[in-house]
């Protein structure tokens, strides 16, 4: 079954009477990388949590375009790596299976750690890994779940420029063909990885029309369409934050 598109229909979310979004509707294309940008506090994480089924909207619904249930088909990768400090890299990759009481597959976990370049640190505890290495373990854990839909909330924001560029390339390669929604504050990251770029803005928040980036991710930082789209995106974001 190909990764489904995600339909968001008439979503309303309110916290303590304050409206975050009203009647928000959008379809995220299946098998594609969508990047979501927007000012701090606008509701990006809340939207991701609703799609992940971690939060209930006041109204509206989220469903898969193929109409099969989304439950069990979504993986979530958070901003912090959320690794268990006392578990090895290998056991952290298999954490989901452990928590669900399922049989674990150490060989597959090991193969994934090799793919993210950590084949030599299988037994390492998180405290002995760098920030970039921990995020690579978190990426391997996300991949271990083999879900067709992957939600990522600023997963690479804490990394230095070079580690970030490397893990972006890895993520684009390893998540190819899945339905990915990536929250980022980084226009370059959005333009390197995204097929469609969305800006969430306003109060209540709305989504403008998406920008489409031509070519396959990961695009080179100096790729012409990346440079062009980055400029366009910065203009859109700047228009939302008057000086
Ligand atoms: N559980 C909650 N209870 C009350 N208010 C909340 C809750 N979760 C989020 N909010 C508020 O809802 C708004 C949207 O929060 P959200 O985390 O979705 O924003 P965001 O766009 O992801 O921000 P950032 O870019 O800073 O991560 C914020 O004003 C936040 O304070």
From TrEMBL:
GO molecular function: ATP binding; ATP hydrolysis activity
Pfam families associated with the record: ABC_tran (PF00005)
Classification via InterPro entries: AAA+_ATPase, ABC_transporter-like_ATP-bd, ABC_transporter-like_CS, ABC_transporter_ATP-bind, P-loop_NTPase
Keywords in alphabetical order: ATP-binding, Nucleotide-binding, Transport
Residue ranges of every copy of the ABC transporter domain listed in the record: 6-226
Protein family per UniProt: Belongs to the ABC transporter superfamily.
Name of the protein in its database record: Putative hydroxymethylpyrimidine transport system ATP-binding protein
């Amino acid at each position: 079954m190909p990764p489904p598109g995600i339909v968001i229909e008439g979503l309303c979310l309110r916290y303590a009477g304050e409206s975050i979004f009203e009647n928000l509707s959008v379809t995220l294309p299946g098998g594609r990388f969508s990047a979501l940008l927007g000012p701090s506090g606008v509701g990006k994480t809340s939207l991701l949590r609703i799609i992940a089924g971690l939060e209930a909207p006041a109204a509206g619904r989220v469903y898969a375009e193929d109409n099969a249930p989304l439950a069990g088909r979504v993986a979530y990768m958070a901003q912090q790596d959320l690794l268990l400090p006392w578990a090895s890299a290998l056991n952290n990759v298999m954490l989901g299976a452990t928590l669900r009481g399922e049989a674990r597959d150490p060989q597959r976990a090991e193969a994934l750690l090799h793919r993210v370049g950590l084949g030599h640190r299988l037994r390492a505890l998180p405290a002995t890994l760098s920030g970039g290495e921990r995020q690579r373990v978190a990426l391997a854990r996300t991949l271990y779940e083999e879900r067709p839909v992957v939600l990522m909330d600023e997963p690479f924001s804490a990394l230095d420029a070079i580690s970030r560029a490397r893990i972006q390339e890895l993520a684009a390669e390893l998540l190819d063909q899945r339905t990915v929604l990536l929250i980022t504050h980084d226009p370059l990251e959005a333009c390197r990885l995204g097929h469609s770029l969305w800006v969430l803005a306003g109060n209540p928040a709305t989504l403008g029309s998406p920008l489409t980036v031509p070519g396959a991710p990961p695009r080179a930082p100096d790729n012409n369409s990346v440079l062009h789209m980055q400029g366009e995106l910065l203009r859109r974001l700047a228009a939302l934050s008057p000086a």
